[in-house]
Amino acid sequence: MAGGLASANEMPKASHKHSATAESKAPSTKVQGEVVSTDASANKLVLKTSSGEETLMVTGKAAARLKDLTAGEKVTVKERNNQVYSISTGKAKGKHHASKAASTAPAASRKY
């Protein structure tokens, strides 16, 4: 009988561990929209999206970016558990680096 109780006690621990893991790995979502307003002191961002205006709470490093955003600017935000953790503007970093690489290529060919 003791063996049956031990295995019964282990099952809830396993399911409890699973639910904690599921909460920490909540899926993130991307939201694209236009900045309506920001409130850096309250860490809030109001976005105009395809479904209307949304007020979002911003956390971490993304909160520091609120002061740099302007109304009308197009942004993509990543959120998890109803909190924004990343804000990116329409300026693609990849294009900037590609143009920089193209300008250095001719200089390398001149060395020959």
Explained architecture:
- It is a single chain.
- The protein has helices spanning 2-24, 60-65, 93-110, and strands at residues 29-39, 44-49, 52-58, 74-80, 83-89.
- The chain is α+β, with helices and mostly antiparallel strands.
- It has a domain at 29-91: OB fold (Dihydrolipoamide Acetyltransferase, E2P) (Beta Barrel), CATH 2.40.50.140.
- It has a 5-stranded mixed β-barrel.
- The protein is globular and about 30 Å long.
Numbering strands along the chain, what is their spatial order in the largest sheet?
Answer: 1-2-3-5-4
* CATH fold type of one domain: OB fold (Dihydrolipoamide Acetyltransferase, E2P)
Fourth-tier CATH superfamily name of one domain: Nucleic acid-binding proteins
Cα Rg: 23 Å
How does the overall form come out from the CA principal axes? globular
Structural class: alpha+beta
What CATH architecture of one domain would you give? Beta Barrel
Just give the CATH class of one domain: Mainly Beta
Question: Strand share of the residues?
Answer: 25-35%
**Poorly predicted runs of 5 or more residues:** 14-23, 94-102
Q: How much is the average pLDDT?
A: 75
**Total number of beta strands:** 5
Q: What is the helix/strand order? A: HEEEHEEH
The count of helical stretches stands at: 3
Report, as a whole number of angstroms, the end-to-end distance.
84 Å
Biggest sheet character: 5 strands, mixed, barrel
Helix content: 40-55%
List keywords for this structure.
112 residues, OB fold (Dihydrolipoamide Acetyltransferase, E2P), five-stranded mixed beta barrel
